[in-house]
Amino acid sequence: MPESEKREINVQIIVGESSEKVSTPGIADSKMNIVNPSLVFGIPAVPTTMSFAATILTSGIDLSREHVVSFKVIGIKGETLSEINGQLHALARPISAGYNFSINFRNIIFEKEGDYKIEFRLDNATDPTASQSFTILL
Fold this sequence. Notes:
Layout: E1 10-22, E2 31-37, E3 40-42, E4 48-59, E5 67-74, E6 80-88, E7 99-110, E8 114-122, E9 130-137
Parallel strand pairs: 3-9
Antiparallel strand pairs: 1-2, 1-4, 4-7, 5-6, 5-8, 8-9
């Protein structure tokens, strides 16, 4: 696709307790359920570790070519608490419906209550392609 025809990339990030893949017998495509989506997580004490999931819904990504993807949990002071990097391989038959990612972050250490952030980056972008804030409360 020529640079002048570049599509706008739209991203929505949903944070929840977990995500689970649900298969339906006789149907080729499975579905992803987001368990207890929330922007605020109550915890009994700090510091603590917590596991949670982020589902990243996208549209406008050119799926006919490879991409580098990065998912980060950012702390109160802007520090990286966790980072997952990967490759999105080109699809032989690109779909136009968009592409979704489900990422499980395990045993992330939260030192304080406050506002944290999930960041999604595409192709080593300096600035996040999208981000979503969430809050840890006692």
